[in-house]
Specification:
- There is one protein chain.
- With 420 residues, this protein is α/β, with parallel strands linked by helices.
- It has 2 domains: 188 residues, D-Maltodextrin-Binding Protein, domain 2 (3-Layer(aba) Sandwich), CATH 3.40.190; 210 residues, D-Maltodextrin-Binding Protein, domain 2 (3-Layer(aba) Sandwich).
- The protein has 18 helices and 9 strands.
- Strands 1, 2, 3, 4, 5, 6, 7, 8 and 9 form a 9-stranded mixed β-sheet that branches.
- Helix 2 links the parallel strand 1 and strand 2.
- It is globular.
- The N terminus is likely disordered.
């Protein structure tokens, strides 16, 4: 090689060196999730915001189908092929991953200070000594209604049970619309948007939930049976063929304008905003009597943690700390209306329906679904049993008392505090 060629080669190497070094420093983090509906939001809003502030760290969002997520994630973790970041379901499913050494403890992250005990409880050990996921969002339950139908029929959102059923009677008597869109085929719908939606007003939210865990209340006590009695009354307002109606059928019935009310989780807001061409409103679960304290299911729904075997732990912790920031909380809440921040930071939301749901926190006490902490660790699984019983009660296949007795018998068969 001539001296001239050596100089050119050296110059080329020098010019390429910084680019090569930069490429070598780039880290790519992969997120496992069940929220495949959120792919576009992560790709277009959340990830670009993080990457702009953290050069050298790239992020990929790689969701699985919601119903397959737990099995897919467990397989990947066992095989050592799971991503760096794990989207966390609340309570026992994620606690199990931590206890197996598959999720890392992250309570020392700086921005974990932005979350209170209620927010972190869903992703902490029973004694609270370790937290393994950053809380991302909760979902709130209530009822979404077609505001144009309400205006047409001269209806106002109900506050009490009597007002609620009087309103349903009025819609039914008019005959133009199905009063409520809900089916019994997909059992989780009856439990989630039925029993545990209205139930907190009867078992007094956290008071009843914690009493059940301690064994101080039973599922056959009145506060747990009465919501089933209310649910049993719904069947007269659900339209023909509700027994075989699946969840997507219920969504279509409402968004096509054929039903007046949808017993809902706030996650419906983004979907309904896209699919419905009418104005919507929302009301909280009715109380038994005017002036009663109100309670809402404000369920800690989604968090994110670090694969304990991540090859990029520092970058993963950087990302998780960002998820704990006010910037992420605001971005996420406005990108996904209906998923409400669990951060203590003030989050300004833009969507009017999301604002309505979250405003209930100011007047009602928040609680979570009662079967999700501790009470579904055995067999039979209480939450799965609630699915089955709620659907049975809705169809009239079990009386409210029979359904409650089924739940109590199953729980007492393995849960010692309920064996007293």
């Amino acid at each position: 090689m001539t001296f001239k060629h050596m100089k050119l080669a050296l110059l080329a190497a020098t010019m390429l060196a910084p680019a090569s070094a930069a490429l070598a420093q780039d880290v790519t983090l992969t997120i496992e999730s069940w929220r495949n509906d959120d792919l576009t939001i992560w790709q277009e809003k959340l990830i670009p915001a993080f990457e702009a502030a953290h050069p050298g760290i790239k992020v990929k969002f790689t969701p699985s189908a919601p119903t397959e997520y737990n099995a897919v994630l467990n397989s990947k973790l066992e095989a050592g092929t799971a991503g760096d970041l794990i989207t966390c379901r609340p309570f026992d499913a994620s606690l199990s991953l931590y206890e197996k050494g598959q999720l890392a403890a992250i309570q020392d992250l700086e921005n974990m200070k932005n979350f209170g005990d209620v927010a972190t409880a869903a992703w902490s050990t029973d004694d609270g000594s370790a937290t393994f996921c950053v809380p991302m969002a909760s979902v709130i339950h209530g009822f979404i209604y077609n505001a144009e139908v309400f205006e047409e029929l001269g209806l106002t959102p109900p506050k009490t049970n009597d007002e609620f059923f009087a309103l349903l009677d009025k819609i039914k008597e008019d005959g133009t619309y199905v009063p409520m869109a809900m089916g019994a085929k997909d059992q989780w719908e009856a439990a989630t948007m039925g029993y545990t939606n209205i139930g907190p007003n009867y078992w007094k939210g956290e008071e009843g939930r914690l009493a059940l865990i301690k064994g101080e209340q039973k599922l056959t006590d009145e506060p747990w049976v009465e919501p089933f009695r209310q649910l049993a009354r719904w069947k007269d307002y659900l339209g023909d063929g509700y027994e075989a109606q699946a969840y997507p059928d219920s969504q279509n019935l409402f968004t096509l304008g054929r039903a007046a009310i949808f017993p809902a989780g706030s996650w419906e807001i983004s979907i309904f905003n896209e699919q419905a061409d009418f104005e919507m409103g929302a009301f909280a679960p009715p109380v038994q009597n005017a002036g009663d304290e109100c309670y809402i299911s404000d369920h800690t729904d989604i968090g994110i943690g670090m694969n304990a075997k991540s090859a990029n732990p520092e970058a993963a912790r950087t990302f998780l700390n960002w998820v704990g920031s006010a910037e992420f909380a605001t971005l996420y809440a406005n990108s996904l209306p209906g998923f409400f921040s669990l951060s203590n930071e003030t989050v300004e939301m833009e969507d009017p329906l999301a604002k309505e749901f979250v405003s209930w926190r100011e007047s009602c006490k928040s609680t979570i679904r009662p079967a999700h902490q501790i009470l579904s660790r055995g067999t039979p699984n209480l939450w799965n049993e609630m699915w089955n019983v709620s659907a049975n009660v809705l169809r009239g296949a079990q009386t409210p008392e029979e359904g409650a007795a089924t739940l109590q018998k199953g729980l007492a068969s393995w849960y010692e505090p309920q064996q007293k």
